[in-house]
Write a structure and sequence with these properties.
six-stranded parallel β-sheet; Rossmann fold; 31% helix; Alpha-Beta Plaits; alpha/beta; 215 residues
């Protein structure tokens, strides 16, 4: 993919290095030329100095052939302006903006932008660590679903996945066996004592699932 990143801070820099190491064509833009130092000598993408919402700079960055655009500067306004230029002016297929202010995040979503609020995400992660050690709601944005981790005990050993799944409420998506191998189970995969399962659960059914598995 051809990807443009606006903002070479800690997040943008790490994202650029990760995507570049995977073989993607990466262009990263920042107003501060010294910010590119964090990319290291191994980075083989393109660096450009300037504003991520400057149409002429974006053209020189190859925006007209870009598959994805990501704005991750430290300023909400810059990220939103850059994202709107990419989406509205240049019709980039996938545009993602980092937004700190949770209230703004909801507003900008209504504009058709893919928005990630680090504030909401981190708060949700902390909440789950404090309250729900086995349940993570932050993995799925809507909050209607989450992922729960369960250890298989004597009550469920020897039973196939299809016997435990509850359509519309609880679906096992991964099994980590005693050999620490992770598999995507089939409906007839038999669970063994000591297996650890990861399942998608409807938040409204969480208490029901806890009761069934005695969590």
């Amino acid at each position: 993919m051809y990807i443009i990143i606006v903002g070479c801070g800690r997040v943008g820099g790490e994202l650029a290095k990760l995507l570049s190491s995977e073989g993607h064509n990466v262009v990263i833009i920042d107003k501060n030329p010294h910010a590119f130092n964090r990319l290291g000598a191994g980075f083989n993408g393109i660096t450009l100095v300037g504003n991520g919402f400057d149409p002429e700079l974006l053209k020189s960055a190859g925006i007209e052939k870009t598959d994805a655009f990501c704005a991750v500067t430290n300023g909400d306004n810059t990220n939103i302006m850059s994202s709107q230029v990419a989406k509205k002016m240049f019709n980039v297929p996938k545009v993602v903006a980092r937004v700190y202010d949770p209230m703004r995040a909801e507003i900008y979503k209504t504009l058709g932008l893919d928005v990630i609020s680090g504030t909401i995400l981190f708060a949700s992660m902390l909440r789950d660590k404090i309250i729900e050690s086995r349940f993570s709601s932050y993995l799925i944005e809507t909050g209607e679903l989450g992922v729960i981790e369960i250890d298989i005990n004597d009550k469920f050993k020897g039973r196939p996945v299809e016997d435990i799944n509850m359509p519309g409420e609880f679906i096992i998506t991964a099994v980590i066996n005693k050999k620490k191998q992770t598999i995507i189970p089939e409906s007839r995969t038999v669970l063994e004592k000591g297996d650890k399962i990861m399942a998608v659960v409807k938040t409204a059914s969480l208490q029901k699932v806890r009761k069934i598995f005695e969590l």
